[in-house]
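From the pipeline queue, job 12 of 40. The input is one protein chain; the requested action is below.

Action: predict structure.
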Amino acid sequence: SDRVRFSPETFLAKRMMVTAYRAILRREPQNSEVKNTRFALRDSGTFDLLRDMIESDEFVQQILPGLVATRTEFSAPNPVFFLHLRKTGGTSIRKAISKALGVPALNRYQAWPGPDRFRHSFWPYWAGHANVGYFPSTHRGITVFRESRSRMLSRYRQQEARSASGVRHGWEYSGHPLPRRPKPANFYSWLHSRSGRGSGSTALHFSIVRHFLPFAGAQGPRELANEEVNRLGDLPRSYIDSALEEGMKRFDAAAWLHDEAGLLGAISQVTGSTVTSLPKENTFESKQYEYPIVRLTREDHTVLKSVAEADAQVTTVARRQGLINPLRQSEADELFEHSASRLGFEI
C-alpha cells in the first residue's frame, strides 16, 4: 500500500499536494497529477509547484475570472489612477482607494510587470510610481504631496531598512534567499551622490518634477531617463511651468500627506464613496532595524532646500489649479522638524 511504500515525509507531501489542488484549483487531483506532482516536488520543491499551479492556464481560465467577479464591484463615476510619489503614505492611500472603489489596482512598481496603457485601459483603477503620461487617458488622477525635506529623510531610511531586512520580493522572486541589498552610503554621500552638475542637478533627480511632465517618446508616454532629467535644468522655467500645467490637468484631486481631512476628501472625491479613515501601512515605526543617528550638515540643508524649491514648482501649479492649499514656510519647517526627530535626524 502507499502507506507502507511511502516514507512519512512523502506521505505528508502527497497530502499537501491534494490540499493545494483543492485550495488553488478548487478540485480533486487525478491520480496521474498526484504522481507527476510528487516528482515535481522532489525535483523543484514546494515553491515552484505552487507558483506553477497559480500561473497555469487552468487557474487563469477557470479560477481567476471568478475571483475577479466576486471581489470587484467598481462604482466610481470615472476610472481612476493614483500617481504614487515615493514616501508620501502611498501604500495606505492606494489600499484605501481600492477599498472605496471595490477593485484592486493594476500596479506599476519596479519589481512587478507593468500593465500596457492601451491593452489594459479597460481596468478602472491604476496606481504606481510612474510618469503622469503612463496612465490611460480615460482615467482621472489623484496624488499626494509631502513636505519635501521630510520626504527625502524618509527615502533614505527606507533604503536603510531594505538593506537591513535582507527581504526581496517581486515578480521574479525565486523563493530562495537572495543577497541583501547593498547598504546605502552614509546620508551625506547618498544625498550628494548625484551632484555631478551641482546642487540643481541633484534637486532634479530627487524632486517630483519628472512625474508630472507629460513626456511622450516615439513609442508613447514613458519615464524620463536620468540624462533627460539633467537637461531639464537647462530649460526655461516658463517651459517647465507650461508642461506641468498640462500634466496637472489630468488630476481631479490631490492633498498634502499631513492633512488627513484633505486626504479623506480627495479620496472620497475621485471614488464617489465617503472615506472616513485610512489604514496605517508601511510606516517607519513598523520597520524593525537599528539605524544610526544622522546629524545634518550645512551642505545637507542646502541640497534639501534645493529639492524643496524644485518640488515647489509642481505644488505651485497644483495650488493654482485648486487641487491643494498653500503650505506656509513656518508649517513646512514644523513638519520637517517633526519628521527629522521621528526618523532619527538631528537638525
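Job complete. The radius of gyration is 24 Å.
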